[in-house]
Amino acid sequence: MHPPLTLHKHPMCAQIIEEFQKCHLDHPFAKFIGECTDLKIKLDRCFRQEKALKRKANFEQSKKLRDRLQASRKETAEAITE
Q: What residue stretch is flagged as signal peptide (predicted)?
């Protein structure tokens, strides 16, 4: 199962999405017996890569936020002890 195939949400995979949708339109019955399977595999790989990039960016952002929070807590603790 894949996420909704909206081009604006998946700019990295836009070309493959268009090819996949065209394949489904061109082969309305053959799609059930594997006509578009190669494109589906490419699409799944693209989605995995896209998700890995998002995961990495989110991790970096959370790391920065955590460091900022720890610095703030440290400043607060120092202010209280004074």
A: none
